[in-house]
UniProtKB/TrEMBL annotation:
InterPro entries: ATPase_P-typ_cyto_dom_N (IPR023299), ATPase_P-typ_P_site (IPR018303), ATPase_P-typ_TM_dom_sf (IPR023298), ATPase_P-typ_transduc_dom_A_sf (IPR008250), ATPase_P-type_domA (IPR059000), HAD-like_sf (IPR036412), HAD_sf (IPR023214), P_typ_ATPase (IPR001757). Its main location: membrane. Residues 138-232 form the P-type ATPase A domain. It comes from Streptomyces arboris. It holds the Pfam family Hydrolase. This is HAD-IC family P-type ATPase.
Length: 829
């Protein structure tokens, strides 16, 4: 099994298996674990029989870990909507009083609802399968062996092992602690890690930042402290996004406008006008139905769902749906170097003894340090690979040194350490970590290290310290530099292309690392990051938020950054109005990931980072991010476009109804006419436009951006259509006059709506031109094919009035162009 551990920069990288820490000599006690001291089951864990007994009693961690809504919830959410209820009632009425062609709008709603359910179900299947891949697998002891199990299989009394980066998945009591430091900030808001000792409680939702140990589960399932929070956090959700809240706001106002208008229209058509009852009902319904932008909600859900499926195929798990939208708005990406720009593994290129140290002795120290840590980080693993335990030194085989004290790496300290009793009985204590932390300013060795850092190499200092408490704040005082350990990191082959993509998309890239700033800048420079030469040591970073924001905007690379500083940096950028995405895989990234607008974690990252991130890259490929950004921009940009189509229809429908009520004339359209127009000018083209590529960064103020175009477009369309209708009422007379008037008004409304579509389809490509042309051809076919003329009750009579309708539409189109240009100049595109 592969665990995660912190390297010397404070970043998370793969480490080898952690030991089971099991004492085979311990015996099990059959008493219920809640009645035992914490250590009773610690050695070997529960037996299979005890596990089965607890499962039978229901003492199992049965909180459902869900990444998506259930099928029942999907069906309910798509079927039982406010507008489906309104349209459903109107549909039933029309089935009784009018021909089937006037009830087509009902079948369209059924089809739309079915499409929405199918698409979200596809997204659910994709998410659920990815969630299983990315699920945390805690290690528990059972029958004297350590094994990985699913979180929901943990039972009361299980002994769960912990290592750096592991999330505490249920509440419990610490049974073993080896310098165990736990971060409870996600629960308490307190950022400082808490040192845990045997007998101390640990809460679900916290995570390990240093050291290791094990705990006994005392509360599982819904009794666990963070169970409900975790369930909600991991749920696939459709809320809390500007897009969806904006659409909800629009629909709320549409409802308020629709109710009085519909009442007035009903009174006008049924009471004031002495028409055929069934025809009056049909025309009343024809006026009410188009006021409802029912397809907008559907199209938004479909676009998001298809986005999730597309990203899922690229091994990208979207844990919160608004993350797609959020990444579309991102203008700053903060990158963690290790695991993002570089691959996890490292290689030792050189060991330089200092101050006349014996090289063979240095190798023995490094070999012993490697053996002292059961959970080596990437840097220490590179040392272990170069100097494995049991290997003969230059002087022949040497007995292993015994470890008397060990201190795991901490991203806050920037070093680790160990104390030994050597083979001759003497004692020694050593620290291994960041040279610029262990050495005082002005030390001549720093100049040598600076030269190595400029080559993009990572340098660790091995220093001997006086025997004492290794984890004391002054442990590094009086240290004697003994050797430099020079490591080379492996660059990700796809990192350069990804950085280039962000530069092309005007997204600023900031590299934030716990490593030396010059070294990080050299790595970023090799990958072609613009501004990589502008580096800043975070220890010199101003603490004032405004000054920090300025420093963040002026520099591209930051080194020696502490976990709390990462969080402050994100906040500083957000204070300047930036939308910030943060990537990381280490436990030291959790706070920043949580506070960023969008948190992106690597699939191989710690359980804690995967838990708080909105997006998890299961393939661990930084190169997937451009796809995520592009998908978000496609969804948001296109929904903003097509929302204008839907709301233009709502505006002109409401205005037409008001004009009809005020002038006391028959409503010009039957439902079949507006079903045809909606299908050709909105429904079909909107579906294709919503799924088209779109690289434009999403802009804020969705409602304002949509309505500033929809309102003038709707007003112009309604005015032109009603003008044609009034002119036709004076032109035609006798039997069949109303049908001829309706046909002329329909022609004007179609042409104006087509012009709105033509504007929204810009900039033109061959398929966009083909789409607009195909919709126009469809309407032309209806006008010339006799049985379609009868079916839709559309037949142009004479030549004067049809050409007048075309002329009015042309004038309206010119007015549309003028109004859109005016709005664009006054309010921005």
């Amino acid at each position: 099994m592969t665990q995660r551990a912190l390297d010397s920069s404070g970043e998370q990288t793969p480490g080898p298996s952690r030991p089971a820490m099991i004492d085979a000599g311990a015996e099990l006690d059959p008493v219920h674990p809640m009645d035992l001291p914490p250590s009773a089951h610690d050695a070997t864990g529960l037996t299979t029989a005890e596990v089965a007994e607890r499962v039978a009693r229901g003492e199992v961690n049965d909180v459902p870990v869900r990444s998506s809504r259930s099928v029942t919830e999907i069906v309910r959410a798509n079927v039982f909507t406010r507008f489906n209820l309104i349209i459903g009632v109107l549909w039933v009425i029309m089935l009784f009083v009018a021909p089937i062609q006037d009830s087509l709008f009902g079948f369209v709603i059924v089809a739309n609802t079915g499409i929405g359910i199918i698409q979200e179900w596809r997204a659910k299947k994709t998410l659920d399968s990815l969630a299983v891949i990315g699920e945390a697998k805690p290690t528990v002891r059972r029958d004297g062996k350590a094994a990985e199990i699913s979180t929901h299989e943990i039972v009361l009394g299980d002994v769960v092992e912990l290592g750096p980066g592991d999330k505490v998945v249920v509440d419990g009591t610490v049974a073993e602690a080896d310098s165990l430091e736990v971060d409870e900030s996600l629960l308490t808001g307190e950022a400082d890690p808490v040192l845990k000792k045997p007998g101390d409680p640990v809460m679900s939702g916290s995570f390990v930042v240093a050291g290791g140990g094990a705990f006994t589960a005392t509360k599982v399932g819904r009794e666990a402290y963070a169970a409900q929070l975790a369930e909600e956090a991991s749920r696939f959700t459709l809320v809390h996004s500007e897009l969806r809240s904006g659409i909800s706001t629009i629909l709320k106002y549409v409802t308020w406008m629709m109710v009085p208008t519909a009442i007035g229209l009903i009174i006008s058509q049924l009471v004031v006008k002495d028409n055929n009852f069934k025809d009056s009902v049909a025309r009343t319904v024809g006026g009410i139905v188009p006021m409802i932008p029912e397809g907008l909600v559907l199209l938004t859900s479909v676009a998001f769902a298809i986005g999730v499926v597309r990203l899922g195929r690229k091994q990208c798990l979207v844990q919160e749906l608004p993350a797609i939208e959020g990444l579309a708005r991102v203008d700053v990406v903060c990158l963690d170097k290790t695991g993002t720009l570089t691959e996890g593994g490292m290689d030792i290129t050189e060991v330089r003894p200092l101050n006349g140290s014996d090289e063979a002795y240095v190798h023995q120290v490094l070999r012993s340090l490697g053996s002292s840590d059961p959970r080596p980080n990437a840097s220490l693993q590179a040392i272990i690979d170069a100097y494995p335990a049991g290997e003969k030194s230059d002087k022949g085989a040497e007995a292993a040194w015994s470890v008397t004290d060990a201190m795991p790496f901490s991203s806050a300290r920037k070093y680790s350490g160990a104390a030994f009793t050597e083979t001759d009985g003497t004692s020694s204590a050593w620290l291994l970590g960041a040279p610029d932390v262990l050495l005082p300013d002005g030390d001549p060795t720093l100049d040598e290290i600076e030269h190595l850092n400029q080559q993009g190499l990572r340098v660790l200092l091995l220093a001997r310290v006086p025997s004492g408490e290794l984890d004391a704040p002054d442990a590094a005082e009086g240290d004697v530099p003994t050797a430099l350990v020079v490591l080379e990191q492996r660059l990700r082959p796809d990192a350069a292309e990804t950085l280039k993509y962000f530069a092309q998309q005007n997204v600023a890239t900031k590299v934030i690392s716990g490593d030396n700033a010059v070294s990080v800048g050299a790595v970023a420079g090799k990958l072609g990051l613009a501004g990589a030469e502008n580096t800043l040591d975070a220890r010199k970073m101003p603490t004032d938020p405004d000054d920090m924001a300025t420093a963040m905007e002026q520099n591209a690379v930051f080194g020696r950054v502490t976990p709390q500083q990462k969080r402050d940096m994100v906040a500083a950028l957000q204070s300047r109005g930036h939308t910030v995405a943060m990537t990381g895989d280490g436990v030291n990234d959790v706070l920043a990931l949580k506070d960023a607008d969008i948190g992106v974690s690597m699939g191989s990252g710690s359980e804690a980072t995967r838990a708080v991130a909105q997006i998890v890259l299961l393939n661990n490929s930084f190169a997937t991010l451009p796809s995520v950004v592009a998908e978000g921009r496609r969804v948001i940009g296109n929904i903003t476009r097509v929302a204008t189509l839907f709301l233009t229809k709502t505006v002109y429908s409401v205005l037409l109804a008001i004009l009809v009520v005020c002038t006391q004339v028959e409503y010009p359209f039957l439902p079949r006419h507006l079903t045809l127009l909606s299908t050709l000018t909105i429904g079909v083209p909107a579906f294709f436009l919503a799924l088209a590529p779109n690289k434009e960064r999403a802009q804020p103020h969705f409602v304002r951006r949509v309505m500033r175009y929809a309102i003038p477009s709707g007003v112009i369309a309604a005015t032109a259509t009603f003008t044609t209708y009034l002119v036709a009422r004076h032109h035609y007379s006798g039997p069949g006059a109303l049908e001829a008037e309706t046909s002329a008004a329909t022609l004007t409304l179609f042409l104006v709506s087509m012009w709105v579509l033509a504007i929204i389809a810009r900039p033109y490509t061959w398929w966009r031109i083909g789409l607009v042309a195909a919709m126009g051809l469809g309407f032309l076919i209806v006008l010339v094919v006799p049985w379609l003329q009868d079916f839709f009750a559309l037949k142009l009579v004479g030549t004067t009035m049809p050409w007048a309708a075309v002329g009015i539409a042309v004038a309206a189109a010119a007015l549309l162009e003028f109004s859109w240009r005016l709005v664009g100049r006054r309010f921005g595109a």
